[in-house]
Amino acid sequence: MSVVSTRLKTKEDITQHEISALKTRFNLADAHTHQDQSLTQQKIVDSLPELWYRAQGQTQYKSEQEFIKAFFTFHGQEHALKRHDEIYLVYAASVAMHITATYLRKRDMSVGLIEPCFDNLHDLLKHMEVPLSPLDESLFRSAKDVYANLQTAAAKVDAIFLVDPNNPTGTSMFANGAQTFMEVARYCRDHGKLLILDFCFAAFIKTAGGSRVDAYAILDEIGTQYIIMEDTGKTWPLQDTKCATIMSSRALNADIYSIVTSVLLNVSPFILNVVTQYINDSSDDDFESVRSVLDINREAAQKHLHGNFLKYLTPMVETSVAWFEILRDGVSADDLQAYLMNYDVYVLPGKYFFWNKPQTGQKYIRLALARKPEEFKLAVETIAVALENYHE
Q: Once rounded to an integer, what is the mean pLDDT over residues 276-291?
């Protein structure tokens, strides 16, 4: 166990853990989608040759615009489509984040970054030498005090960077309507702050049975300056065949566009055709194929793991990950992760999400839910047995 523990503690970030997790029998580390195709999604796979030649026979622009219209319409963000030529497509959300970090560095802007959050946000900004200050996600849980709280917490930063719903906790400004978000947008407008939004998990507002408010319309109506990133990679079982988007308020568009074009020319039209089919499929079945897998696995996780050792933390918005608090005194997330490795199960310790105070995260672990239900059930049953046998 000590050898395993030492090896795990040398990891520098979540991604390095996720790479190692790919070697284990039960990989519950990365939040990428690893579930089977639904019956209708299987038909999309069967049609891949047709989609290949369709992409080959139409313009790049047509493939892009079909994807943009399908994605933003499906998510209820139709206001953005008024500027559809200023929605830029990139290979992955991390590329959109790198573009954003480049903009911030060029402008010598400081950032208030939500904590906890997925660690590559912090790492990308840190590597670009963007000054960072933590904004505790508790600031954004209700509309009542958020404006006043930000007057203190964000007074010295130039930009506010939020993830909604947040990964890993599921905290969301939209859980009880749009008022909290509107207050944040109003604060940013009134105090000249750039609002940066990572909506890469926003699809789970829909899978949880809700509907997304049109955030782009709200921001433009209030007059807030913004950069927004969205993604497809954490939603559909695409084997990382994905596309992300980045869009900014009109005043920032020229600067963002110049950075985008320095990074890439275009996303593969074949990939765009494939992902568009998955979006349309979920539009037809009201996200049932995605929702059902997550519901089954979330129920299994709670049934087998919620108890005296671990406590399932109910999120404001149910996403594709489960966040557990460690209740056993003297057991850190690092300890538990290393122990579970002996059972060929890989989970993520919470310390990487708490980028400013890693020790705070030692009482949490994260489990990915987007897995084949039969395999996920075996995984959580294995964890349950392991916890019964745990001796300090």
A: 95
Cα separation, 65 vs 85, in Å, equals: 8
| Domain limits, CATH 3.40.640.10, in the chain | 42-285
- Judged against a pLDDT cut of 90, whether residue 363 lies above it is answered with yes
CATH 3.90.1150.10 in the chain, residue ranges: 2-30+288-388
Percentage of the chain modeled with pLDDT above 90: 88
Strand partners for 321: 368
Q: Give the whole-angstrom CA distance, residue 134 versus residue 355.
A: 8
35, 372 Cβ separation under 8 angstroms = yes
Tally: H helices and E strands in the chain: 16, 13
Total-model pTM: 0.94
- CA 162 to chain centroid: 11
What residues contact 222, with CB distance under 8 A and at least 6 apart? 182, 185, 186, 189
CATH class of 42-285: alpha beta
- d(Cα 248, Cα 257) in Å, to the nearest integer? 9
- Decide if 194 contacts 184 (C-beta within 8 A): no
Q: What's the farthest any 2 CA atoms get from each other in the chain?
A: 63
Residue 3 has pLDDT above 90, yes or no: no
- Count the Cβ atoms, other than its own, within 10 Å of residue 138: 10
Return the SS3 of 29: coil
**Total residues belonging to the chain:** 392
Tokens matching residue 320? 């594709």
Contact 122, 94 (CB under 8 A): no
* CB atoms inside a 10 Å sphere around CB 254: 10
Q: What is the CATH number of domain 2-30+288-388?
A: 3.90.1150.10
pLDDT of 31 reads 85
DSSP code at position 213? -
Q: What pLDDT does residue 392 have? A: 61
pLDDT in tens, 18-47: 556 455 678 998 888 999 999 999 999 999
Three-state DSSP at 292 gives helix
